[in-house]
Each structure stands twice: as C-alpha cells, then as structure tokens.
Fold this protein.
Amino acid sequence: MPGENLSRDEARERAALLSVEGYEVSLDLRSAVGGTDVGPRTFRSVTTIRFRCAEPGAASFADLIAPSVTALSLNGRDLDPGAVFDGTRILLEDLAEDNELVVDAQCAYSRTGEGMHRFVDPEDGEVYLYTQYEPADSRRVFANFEQPDLKAPFRFEVRAPEGWVVWSNGVGELADGVWKFAETKPISTYITAFVAGPYHYVSDSYERVFEDGTRLEIPLGALCRKGLAKHFDSDDVFLVTKQGLDFFHDHFDYPYPFGKYDQAFVPEYNLGAMENPGCVTFREEFIFRGRVTQAAYERRANVILHEMAHMWFGDLVTMVWWDDLWLKESFADFMGTFSMVEATRFTNGWTTFANSRKSWAYRADQLPSTHPITADIHDLEDAKLNFDGITYAKGASVLKQLVAYVGRDAFLEGARRYFKRNAYGNTRLGDLLSVLEETSGRDMATWSRSWLQTAGVNSLTPQVILGPEGRVTELAILQEAAESHPELRPHRVAVGLYRRSPEGTVERYARAEVDVEGPRTVVGELVGAAAPDLVLVNDDDLTYCKIRFDEGSLATLREGLGEITDPLARALCWSALWNLTRDALMPARDFIDLVLRFAGRESDIGVLQMLHAWTNSALTHYAAPGWRAEGGPLLAEGALRELRLAEPGSQHQLTWARFFAAVASGEADFQLLQELLDGTAKIDGLDVDQELRWAFLEPLAVHGVADEAALAAELARDDTASGKRHQVRCLAARPSAAVKAQAWASVVEADSLSNALVEATIAGFGRPSQRELTAPYAAKYFEVIERVWEERSIQIGMDVVKGLFPSLQDSSATLDATDAWLAARGAAAPALRRLVLEARDDLARSLRAQACDGASGG
C-alpha cells in the first residue's frame, strides 16, 4: 500500500486550492469476458475533469491507481505519463484558473472487492462486475480528486459486452453500443458506482403526492446474479423500500433527490451495503438460499433503511473529511432502526439494537484504539479502520440519547433545517449542532463535549437502601468510568423496579426517569416504593452505558432471568450479564449455565441468536482451559435438548439446530449430524435444506468425520458461488497439519484467492478444537504481517491481520510475543499497529476472564 495513502492535511490543502466543475468518465468493460488471466486483467478508463484553481501557477495532483497510463493532457498540453504518474498520483503543475485534465488509463479489475470487482460465477461461467469505493477506491476505476469535499456532477458512459446491462447512479440508456447515463447531482467520488453484467433485474415504482400537490415518482429496481433469481424475494425488498421512502418523506421534508432507486445484490462483497445514490449495493447473502429466521429479514430491512437514510445523511449532505464520518454513519445506524420500528413489520427493532448493535459498541469502546465519536482521522488508512462499532453503534446509541435529551420533534426539525441549508454541500460537527440548538433551545456544546468528543463507556450501578417496613428509603445510581477515560457523562435514564408476581413472573411495577450527573445521583421519585427483586438501570435503553446490578438483583437474575416478561428488559439483562463476563466480573461457566437454563424461554429470535454467539465465545475464550472439556459437552447436550423441545418447523428449532451443529463435541453428536444429512434420522419439522447441510457438514469436517471426498460431493450437489465458499471453509477446517500449511500458504504467501475465498479460508483455519495444530503459526504470524500489510490491498491486509492473529493460543507467551512485536515495530503503519493492539487487548481480556472462571471452579 505504499503511496496510496492521503493525509488530511493534503486534502485540506487541495480543497483550498481546487474546486471541481464536473467529470466525464468513459469506461470500456468489454475486456471483462474472454481471454485468460495472465497478469492483471485491465479495462480502458478515459476521464475528463474540469476544475478551477484559486492560485494560477500553483501545483497539485490527481489520484489514480492503475497499472498504466496511455496518455495525459492538461489544458491541451500533452504530459509524459512516465514523468508525472507514479502509480497512485498524477502531478499537475502550472495550473490555470480554469483547467481541463484528460487521462487515458488502463485500470485493473479487482478480486479483493475494492474498485471494479470482477466475479466469475462457477455455476454458469457468467461474469459480473460491480464497484465499491469507500473510502477511496474510485481512483482504481477513473482519475479523480479522491476526497469527500471535492464534490462535482458526473457524466458516465460505458461500453460493455453484448447482452449486458449496466447500471450507475443516474438513469442509463443504450445507444449505438454505448451505455450513457444522466448527469448526477454534485456528489463525492466515493459514492459513484457501476454495476454491469447479465444480472437478473426486477422493476417497480414509488409514487408520492405532497401536500402542495407536487408529485414524485421514483423508478425502483432490484437485481442479483441469475443463479440467485429463484431465491430472490424482490417483493419484500420493494415493500420495505416503499415503507422507508414514505417514512423519510414524512419526517425529512426533503424529497428523495437522486431520481431512480436501484438496489443491487452483488457477489463477494466486503461490506453489508453501500449507499451509492441511485445505485445502492448490498452483499448477496441478503438473498436467502435456505430457510432463515425472522431476525435475518429484520437485519435486511434494517440495512435497506440504513442505506436509504444515507441518501440524506451522507449523500445529499456529506462530511468535509473522515473525522466527521459519524455525521453519516451514526445517523444512518440510528435512523435505520428508528424508521424500521415505526414503518415496517419489525416493531421490536430496538430490542435487537440493545442486544446486538450495542454489544459491538461496548467492545469497541473498551479497546485501546477507542476514540471519540468525532474522531481524529489523519489519513485514509485511519479512515478505513474507523468504520467501527463506535462510529456506527455507539454513535447511534448516543443519537437515541440525544432524541430523549432534546425531544423527538426538535431533533427531526433540526434534521430538516440541516438538509435544506447544506444540500449538495459538506459539513462539520458545528453545522449540525447549531441547528439543534435552534430547534431545542439546549446547550449542544456541553452535550457534544461529553458525548461526541470523549471516549469510553460509563457503568451505572443501582444502590438500594430499604427501611424496616420493606420499602425503598433511598435509591441512588453510581456512575463509574475507566481510569483511561475518566469522563462522567450526563445520562437521561429510566430506572425500573421489578418484582416477582404470584404467578412467578418478573414484572415492572414502578419506573422513573432521571438525569444522572456525576458519581452519584439520587432517584427521589422511587422513594417509598415496595422493595424490588430487580433494579434495572437504563430500563427502556435510553442511554449508552454498561448496566451493573446490586447483589439482590443479580440473585434474582440467577434464579428467574427467564421469567422477565418484557423482551427489551430481558435483552438488557442478558447484555449486562455478558458485559460482566467480558469484564471478568462473572465466571464464564456461570454465564453458560444461565444460557443453558433460560435461553430456551427466549422469545426474541435475534436475542437468542446473539446468546448463542456469546456462549460460544464464552467457552472458546473466557472459560478456564481446564473446564472446556466439561463445558463443551454440556453445551452440546443443552442445545440438543432445546432442539428437540422446540416447536416443529419453528424458527427457534432452526436456530437451535444451527447452534447444536456449532457446539457438537462427541461421537454421538457427529453421528446424529451425519444421519440428518443422510436422511436416516429425522427431527420433526426440521427441513435440512442446502444451507443447513453445510452447517452440519462443517463440524464433521472440523473433527475429521467428513473428508475431502465428502466435501467434493457436497460441492457437486451445490455447485454455486455460495457452495464454493462453504467448501473452501470446510476444507481449511480439517484437522491436519498439511491442511493448515496449505491454508496458510494460500492466504499469506499467494495472492490468487478472491476476497471471499480469503475470508472463507481464514474462517476455516483457526478452530478451538485444533489449538495444537495452529500453534506453530503464532510465531509465523508476527514474522509476516508487516510484509502482508505492505504488499496487499488494505482490505486483504485487514482480513489477514485480524483473522490470523493467534487468539486461540491464549497464554501469557502469546501476549508477550505480541508486546515484543509492538515494541520492535514502532515505525510500522499506524493502522497495522492498531489492529495488533486491538487483538492484543482481546487476548488480555480473555486471560483475565479465564482467571476469574478458574478461581470460581476451586
């Protein structure tokens, strides 16, 4: 990655000097089909940029990452590509007031999901293309000024293989073999897009008549690979899309500004989705090949609405630089759930948010790399890593708190003014805070300093004092912060008092809202209430904090967690218990015991799936090593019990079946999985479809029951792109030293695998039951990661550095080796050091939790 970085200072200097009037980009993608891949496969890219310079005679540069440049001209002067192009930048000297740059280049197709990604479908040999740019990969497709504040209108044209269709941000038409697209509004380079190939396409339309009588019609499209067409439930995609457009038009008072609205589900996608205006891209795993739970449909709806919110927060109004990434991602994350709950059938979305999204934020906010929501982003590598749990989920949590703080109406009115004042422009933090101050009358500067400009998560613990009559004489909330981030923040919280009913359920009987300030806040409104069995701080999940419990409440949860009737309250308690486990305040085996006793009663399927993931992590990383051999069979036994008890054909049955496969640990478990695959065993109501077949095959491969021939036979049964990913993961998961050596070499020493197959190989490589097999690679990891980071794309570098860290070699020796690498590599790329520091912190947390668990076992 040398030379590809761009610093914030360079971007500021260029933005002060240049303003862009427009782009014309012509691509020839006919080379995508035919031929052989000997060396990089390239396409022709011709770009004309018209721009102004505030200081005639000055010098600047354009961005381009390409194997070669055929011709260059600036203001009619031919430039020598060898003299001004270094592979990543084009030097522009002696600029005029008005300038025209023409770049004729050979750009490379990608196999890493960055730039112009090329995918060959193994099912039918068809080629599919799509682009993915954020934060700075449009320069892999056409020459430009790659920074968010140099917005401009774009005109695109594309020559494609015969029979293909091409989509971009604007409406396109095919004439004389060329796809020509309507000029865009002024947008940033990173949200331009192309999708091209023999995609399956479905159309619909959205209509809206506003109060003033004006009519808006938005053509809708949805597309996927032909091989997935039989699985594509486009009607549901369009339903959520229309519900979202209604919601945002109702609340934003700014009509959707980008014409059409296509949504492309594309293969080997690195992200969940990307908000390219008029041409949103999604990972194709959102098209479900087998039976999935309601949580999967909820997740897809949330992502659809998240990307739609970006049409306003991010596309219409864009941050100046990546420091203020939160101005789009935090808002989109919040608005995705906000709109989903109010406009779609997924009315329990805030429960999923509290249990799943916030757990991502809590982890990120306790890493050594934690940062304020408004981050300090020095360069593009920093920016790439800041698409994290803080920017998304913590930011969204804080916005939920902000709505409680300023009021819903003031918040939405602030958004409306923000769009109208800054349409097609770029903003910073102060631009948003100023309109919120106008609409709410609140001091936003103080709120911002506490919530947006400091890092770390606070813990809130109830302190209850009871009188002789068994009533509350005092209830206080104690607020704590980590020594590394000591900020005590203002919180608007609800405190719920719960007690057992005569029927045995645990229900709320009193509630009060209070502004928490400082280390101790008294909740006067609850004085005199009957003694509670459970005190739930942050009831209804109004703020962002870690919930703690007093001893009485914790005892209630140990005996009656499954009896809490409110799903959100129950989810908050589960999340709090998981945080106690991660913080080495609760033994991992105690958490596992709670799951085994109470998870079978969990009604919310998203919460249940999260509990399964946490429980697997608890056994793998947080349980004392000596207890794992006992804990594994307990989990498998419990999972099988719940699988057999689940209602036949229910989503709970499917979820327990997947969890049983994930934790299967003995010969009897493996025999049952094999018999379910063979059809010689049945569980009433359980349909073992193709996706579930792979889920059952994976543990058989891990434990040496399914060999290479069995996996080849399954691929023959499912000879698709999805099947290939499953097979590659299972092949790498087999318990053999030769297998591990081959998997390591294919990822670390070679560069032939696509991004999706790199991910699958890494996922198969490290398995908890194979710690001894992967132990030799701990030392090798520290020998190779700097070279990998330098030689590979940033996406693949991130996958390797995060995915191959020897976290399963959970000993002080691995911690020491990590510290030694960090001490010796002070000059390594900051983004690389951040990834290693984060992995080191996770390992240290595991060791602390293992010590806690070990101490509990005597």
